[in-house]
Amino acid sequence: MPLYRDQAIVLRTQKLGEADRIATLLTRANGKVRAVAKGVRRTSSRFGARLEPFSYVDLQLATGRTLDVVTQAESIAAYGEGIVSDYARYTAGTVLLETADRLVVEEKEPALQQHLLLAGALRVLSTGEREPALVLDSFLLRSLSISGYAPSFDDCARCGEPGPHRAFNPASGGMVCTTCRPPASAMPAQATVTHLTALLTGDWPTALQADPRTRRESTGLIAAFFTYHQENQLRSLPHLDLTPGAS
């Protein structure tokens, strides 16, 4: 079988047989890959611990008919060590992984931007550098944007009229003008719109200035926008615990 090397983030794993495991990976060069790691559930496995969710690894894989096979695994960064010990980080991290798995649909299709975005979010989450809620909200917006669902927080999402506008509607694609505003649109505070823009663009000095009320309103709008454009809620969202101030 032909061999290839790639860097990968482990999104999820599932048991296969008595000792093997199937790992779903988001690789740097080959997009999403499903690969068998043989014997990793045995205590004598050389790289079992390196193929756990949140791990960032350098892999050698053999191309298979349906599933590739992991033949070598070297750790690049064990992000899980700084994530699984803190419940807020862990629940945010599981949403990050599920989101990447959901948005990268086709296997073996390059998804470099999603890979880099996920790697950066996991690194920041694992160090406690920023609150889990901020990391997650920014990731959701930017991941959706990469996938072609970028929300508009300035010009009207329907007609393009320059903003600022007062109404937000997930089905319309973001902020909408008075003429285009559908019934039951949300009316977020201007501070919330500023915060959402900062999260989308990675403007952390501005994002960090938001007060708890602004952050909560932003989180609700992001969740509504994501759920609408992905049709189904993420399985990991109900377990989310992002108490303000948690690290």
Automatic annotation (TrEMBL):
<dbReference type="InterPro" id="IPR037278">
    <property type="entry name" value="ARFGAP/RecO"/>
</dbReference>
<dbReference type="InterPro" id="IPR022572">
    <property type="entry name" value="DNA_rep/recomb_RecO_N"/>
</dbReference>
<dbReference type="InterPro" id="IPR012340">
    <property type="entry name" value="NA-bd_OB-fold"/>
</dbReference>
<comment type="similarity">
    <text>Belongs to the RecO family.</text>
</comment>
<dbReference type="Pfam" id="PF11967">
    <property type="entry name" value="RecO_N"/>
</dbReference>
<dbReference type="Pfam" id="PF02565">
    <property type="entry name" value="RecO_C"/>
</dbReference>
<comment type="function">
    <text>Involved in DNA repair and RecF pathway recombination.</text>
</comment>
<protein>
    <recommendedName>
        <fullName>DNA repair protein RecO</fullName>
    </recommendedName>
</protein>
<keyword id="KW-0227">DNA damage</keyword>
<keyword id="KW-0233">DNA recombination</keyword>
<keyword id="KW-0234">DNA repair</keyword>
<dbReference type="InterPro" id="IPR042242">
    <property type="entry name" value="RecO_C"/>
</dbReference>
<dbReference type="InterPro" id="IPR003717">
    <property type="entry name" value="RecO"/>
</dbReference>
<feature type="domain" description="DNA replication/recombination mediator RecO N-terminal">
    <location>
        <begin position="1"/>
        <end position="79"/>
    </location>
</feature>
